[in-house]
Amino acid sequence: MAVFGKLAYDAGVPPTSLLLVRFGLAAALLWLVLLTRPGLRRAAPGDAGGGRPATRRGRVVAVALGLGAIGYATQASLFFSALELMDASLLALILYTYPVMVTVAAVLLGRDRLTPGRGAALVAASGGTLLVLLGAGGAGFHPLGALLAFAAAVTYTVYILVSDSVVHRLAPVALSALVMTGAAGTLGARALVTGGVDLSFGWRGWFWLAAIAVVSTVVAMLAFFAGLRRTGPSTAAILSTFEPVVTAALATLALGEALTLAQLAGGALVLSSVAVLQLRPGRVRPREQPTGRPGPARDTEPAPAAR
């Protein structure tokens, strides 16, 4: 998405237009998916989604819309503001400190405990982040851009912690559609207040906007949920650490960006730390019941929130 965003900027797309079209188009496509695939509206068996009173369901829907209207809209605005000022590869590395922040916040809130392995991973991630920033000697580094990138990571951390309260109460695609709708609503309201958005850019701009909305948002989200169902949350989370590596590689090929050796070493530390932080025990083996039949397996870990 960072690479597509840079190419959209080069095609004359303003950031406000990029954000509104991205979320508006993504929301429309997700609702179309739900309309054509009614089965995706239902939560998976075992989720805390069925049999709720209408008032509770309405509260969950309101929280989902709020996640998009406040959390996701703010995070995306900070992300694309930072993208105007700095390289896509460096932005991806700074943004990907959010799993470390989520772990620290979960420990402080009492939702998780800090094991020696996780403590070592946090130290390594902090050192890696420092290397990324200290090694940024090229023109791609911008202090304000780095600050906006960290703010985006912090905002996304809060978004994940709040979304943990509703992620098991709605079907994943329905939750994603509500989040996108909330974000599109906020950005549309901001456009009305500030005098509208500029949509006069050419076909190249629309092409990269469509790529952001379809490839980097809708297809990526649906593919993540499909993979999550087949691999489990730990494997999906570990595989997602490949995201900034792909961004850096594509930014080098498409935009001519390059990371210094110090930044590459720091990025490797951050990514390896994220992988270690996501390694958790899988399922507890079924225990034999007195009847001789195996009892149900207990999943010891929650599914991660979707981005």
Detailed description of the structure:
The chain has twelve helices and no strands. The protein has 307 residues and is an all-alpha fold. It has one domain. The radius of gyration is 20 Å and the shape is globular.
Give a quick precis of the structure.
Keywords: Cell membrane, Membrane, Transmembrane, Transmembrane helix. By secondary structure, the protein is mainly alpha-helical. Helix content is 69%, strand content 0%.
Helix segment count? Answer: 12
Radius of gyration: 20 Å
Shape: globular
Mean pLDDT: 79
> What is the SS-derived class?
mainly alpha
Low-confidence stretches: 281-307
How do the helices and strands follow one another from N- to C-terminus? HHHHHHHHHHHH
Helical residues, percent: 55-70%
Strand count, sense and closure of the main sheet? none
Say how many strands there are. Answer: 0
Query: Into how many domains do the coordinates divide?
Result: 1
Estimate the strand proportion.
Answer: under 5%
Q: How widely separated are the two ends?
A: 13 Å
Question: What key phrases describe this protein's structure?
Answer:
single chain; 307 residues; mainly alpha; 12 helices; globular; disordered C terminus
